[in-house]
Design brief:
By secondary structure, the chain is α/β, with parallel strands linked by helices. The protein has 8 helices and 8 strands; from the N terminus they run βαβαβαβαβαβαβαβα. Helix 3 links the parallel strand 3 and strand 4 (89-92). It is globular and about 45 Å long.
């Protein structure tokens, strides 16, 4: 049975900044740099130092329309902790119907990780807001395109893992316009100026590729 689904929001750019390794004290400068560059979705993976504290700090710094949340979410308990700190974006490496159902009950946008048609269809049936094809650099645009042919219409597809702005055009050619940017955007200890430079480059390339769409 198809579960409740929170729609993927209309963002100016479907770019999710993945801040694995971010520390709470780094949040203000890094988040400000991302917002100024034009990125409206930020994920702090739960294998980062004090991730819920970072998410709570970030949530207080950004407008309500900006997605702030957690990655590597594996349990319902983590969904509840994310809700308690104000997160509204849940990203996971797998498809767990209980996690997705609880996140939807909490009004969260969800993006579970998938790799095969079976996983992608299971995620869609479990109410995923969008699908995270991971690692995208293994499937490549052609692999994702083949799986997209059997997916229900209207579920956004994202490419995550080994993806940078240099890959936007190739994925755009097969209908992908949502991307998670990790090490190409942020690495532990990176300063705000470095993140700002990389974020601006990603935004500029995204706009160049998708401006005609």
């Amino acid at each position: 049975m198809t579960q409740q689904r929170i729609p993927w929001p209309q963002l100016r750019r479907d770019l999710v900044a993945i801040l694995r390794g971010l520390r709470p004290e780094e949040v203000p400068a890094i988040v400000e740099a991302l917002l100024e560059a034009g990125i409206e979705a930020i994920e702090v993976p739960l294998n980062s130092p004090e991730p819920f504290r970072s998410i709570e700090r970030a949530r207080k710094l950004v407008p309500d329309n900006v997605l702030i949340g957690a990655g590597t979410v594996l349990s319902v308990a983590d969904v509840d902790r994310l809700r308690d700190c104000g997160g509204n974006l849940l990203v996971s490496p797998n498809v767990d119907p209980a996690v997705l159902s609880r996140a939807a009950e909490c009004g969260m946008v969800t993006m579970p990780g998938v790799f095969s048609p079976t996983e992608a269809l299971a995620a869609a049936a479990s109410g995923a807001s969008a699908l995270k094809f991971f690692p995208a650099n293994v499937l490549g645009p052609s692999g994702i395109k083949a799986i997209m042919a059997v997916l229900p219409p209207g579920v956004p597809v994202g490419a995550v893992g080994g993806v940078s702005e240099r890959d936007f055009a190739a994925y755009a050619d097969v209908g992908v316009r949502t991307f998670g940017l990790g090490s190409s955007l942020y690495s532990p200890g990176a300063g705000a100026a470095e993140v700002a430079e990389k974020a601006c480059a990603a935004v500029a390339e995204y706009d160049a590729v998708f401006s005609s769409g």
